[in-house]
Amino acid sequence: MVSFTLNSVLQSLRSPRLSRLMLGMGALLLAIEGTWSVPVHSSTAFGVYIILLLVLLCVQLPKLRFSAGWPAHIGMLLILAGSVLGASERIPCRMRLYVNEAGSIAYTDDMKTVQLPFTVALDKFETEYYANDKIAPKQFRSYLKVDGKDMTIEVNEPASYMGYSIFQDGYDMTDGKYSVLKFVRDPWLPVIYIGMALLAVAAVLLLFDRCNWKVILPVVILIAMMFTMFSIAKIEFQWLMPVLRSWWFVPHLGIYMLAYSVVAVAVIVTFFNTLLAKQLMRSASGLIVLGMLMGCIWARQAWGDYWGWDPKENWAAVTWFLTLMCLHVQDATRWKITMYVLLTFVALQITWYGVNYLPSAVNSLHTYNS
């Protein structure tokens, strides 16, 4: 009797319907925070959701074969577990230094003091401007001595010392007399990066699985070129801010444009061929994951955080969750596939440009032109 009950529970936990329900709950919570900047991620409800999601991922592992599902579930387990277990050990703090000043005490966002295990001195600070107009900074960097060791940091180019990563966080925009440095200690970061690597493997497996790219690829490339040209037209390259001056910029943008194009094609195809539309959503899901992972690594290099609960990040995750909900539909019911495809298309429109018009836009790190 007990065995029968346990098997029934396990069968229920492994059902695609429950997976879609959990993904839908996550998408809803992320959409709320991404729209109104409500700190859902720090709420008790979100904590319970993460615990349930971890349990679900563990229970579903035995039924998975070595396909995209296996590295995806393991990767998500490592990322979520590393984030939860490492939250108490992660130390982000900042220090403001004037030229020729040294210090070893930094402050958290809530103004708690952090005694660093080393001393940092600012030897020199310099700012590069576009066309020497002293208005738009092209790059800014600090020349440091960390325990007497020379180091140079700038936006997108942090340094490391004694388990801390040191980032160029800001500066005195009036006359450049001081530099703001950010220090991050995150001992669980290697675990999270392993999880990201496994997600990348899953994304590649999804990307080319069961899809007739010989027929679809020309259409996708054409639409991707249209998306890309529209995006580039909105970017003021002559005044590109320092955070965007990274070699991650092109692949991150390009991958997302391809993902958006695949979803756009899936919207058209779903009215004629449900099976092909689902296959396209598999590829779109893989592309979105790759784009998100590139963004996470880029954000870590620029801001010291691989995930900042930014409105654009949250809506990107919503879009990804919706593609996963589509993949967890076991039958080929047309209305279900069509619904998920259309919802994904709406979500990516919000992620792409609609987020700039949401109430949360004032707190976004991604509204660059503003």
What do these coordinates show?
With 370 residues, the chain is an alpha+beta fold. It folds into 2 domains: 13-88 and 188-363, no CATH class; 91-185, no CATH class. 53% of the residues lie in helices and 18% in strands. It has helices at 2-13, 16-36, 44-60, 69-86, 189-207, 213-233, 249-269, 274-303, 311-327, 334-352; strands at residues 91-98, 102-107, 113-129, 137-146, 149-154, 159-161, 164-171, 178-185. The strands form 2 sheets. A 4-stranded antiparallel beta sheet has the order 1-8-7-6, with helices on one face. A hairpin with a 7-residue loop joins strand 3 and strand 4. Helix 3 (44-60) packs antiparallel against helix 4, helix 5 (189-207) packs antiparallel against helix 8 and helix 9 (311-327) packs antiparallel against helix 10 (334-352). The longest helix has 30 residues, at 274-303. The chain is globular and about 70 Å long. 34% of the residues are buried.
List keywords for this structure.
2 domains, 10 helices, alpha+beta, 4-stranded antiparallel sheet, single chain, 53% helix, globular, 370 residues, 18% strand
* Main pleated-sheet profile: 4 strands, antiparallel
Share in β-strands:
15-25%
**Can you tell me the number of structural domains?**
2
- SS-derived structural category: alpha+beta
> Which whole number gives the mean pLDDT?
89
Gyration radius over CA: 23 Å
Helix content: 40-55%
Total beta-strand segments: 8
Oligomer: single chain
The N- to C-terminal Cα distance equals 63 Å
Element-by-element helix/strand order: HHHHEEEEEEEEHHHHHH
